[in-house]
């Protein structure tokens, strides 16, 4: 796993940890870490994921990779995150189970908006009172998810009104190069 070397990037890591742990109800839900290729964004993201995994606040860590674009990873992102959240939070798992009992096709649909609303947001809101502490989901290397069109749907979800109104203890750390579409 990519990680920052010990005692490096301490300021940015501490800033991100403080953001994840911010308990103010109006705290930003999404943080975009961007920069040129090779600047350490993934190392920072994986260090944060590892740190929050150790303290119990990692919801999921999903990584895009240019060499895996053929797998249509953007279509697997939300099901993977939902699966990870269900594995870590029993209340989320129960809420997700109720959603899937009504519509099992949600696991395989390519409709990212429907997956976002039904596999992430709905169970998250139903479980939010039972999830103690702040939860971070890391989405690494969005720029490697494929072409502009494949990112368009993910970006529209992350910039939607629903995303801005996620439960106050839920955070998404997103990394990418600063491409024009992102």
Automatic annotation (TrEMBL):
Domain Nephrocystin 3-like N-terminal: 12-177
Statement: the UniProt record of this protein carries the keyword Signal: no
Pfam families: NPHP3_N
Domain of life: Eukaryota
Keyword Repeat belongs to the record: yes
Keywords linked to the UniProt accession: Repeat
Gene3D superfamilies linked to this entry: P-loop containing nucleotide triphosphate hydrolases
Protein name: Nephrocystin 3-like N-terminal domain-containing protein
